[in-house]
Amino acid sequence: GENVEQHPSTLSVQEGDSAVIKCTYSDSASNYFPWYKQELGKGPQLIIDIRSNVGEKKDQRIAVTLNKTAKHFSLHITETQPEDSAVYFCAPAPEIQGAQKLVFGQGTRLTINP
Amino acid sequence: DSGVTQTPKHLITATGQRVTLRCSPRSGDLSVYWYQQSLDQGLQFLIHYYNGEERAKGNILERFSAQQFPDLHSELNLSSLELGDSALYFCASTPMGGGINEQYFGPGTRLTVT
Q: Nearest chain A Cα to B105, which residue?
């Protein structure tokens, strides 16, 4: 099955600086790479995703880059703001019709210091 | 608001008891997923239902069972509860059963076993 690792497990950055979180996976069949953000007391929410036919996707201050050869993808947040403080999860998965057995990374707690 | 509802929000019960957690997916979504989130385990996939049928199982204990009803709501039944079952339980829904799509998470049910 899929083995997913996230690094770092905690990250503290100054407001305005950039943050990068890396997700490494083992299943070469994975071709969907999402990042979820979980704020305190809430369920996870998708913030950006990428499919294996592209190497990078950007949405305002957040971006995801994919290195399929090395089996890792990263979340980049620029110009960080206090509201970016949350736990971030990756969940790489193969696009298999029907059954979906999702494995989430262990999460990265991001703290933005004012 | 993701459109996914979960009840109850909080549940406190004793060891050995049985509880039922309920999830209503977003209108029109056919797939429901259940996850367990404890402090040291991250998000663990439990089970996936599509249009009333079980599609995939994760690390779900034999003491746990789930079903999806004709109106597409789902219930997760936890029996012979142990202290270690204390966790947040999330359900998520997606529009289709095939292929990977964004998962919409509910607000979760916090279960405390005493």
A: A43
pLDDT 10s digits, A28-78: 888 889 999 999 989 999 999 998 878 999 999 999 999 999 999 999 999
Is residue A11 within 8 A of residue A18, CB to CB? The reply is no
| Contact (CB<8Å) B99/A97 | yes
In chain B, the DSSP E strands lie at: 5-7, 10-13, 19-24, 31-38, 42-50, 53-57, 64-68, 74-78, 87-94, 104-105, 109-113
Q: Which residues pair with B89 in a beta bridge?
A: B36, B109
Chain B residues whose CB is inside 8 A of the A97 CB are 98-99
Peptide linkage before A8 cis (omega within 30 of 0): yes
Q: Which SS3 state, helix, strand or coil, does residue B85 take?
A: helix
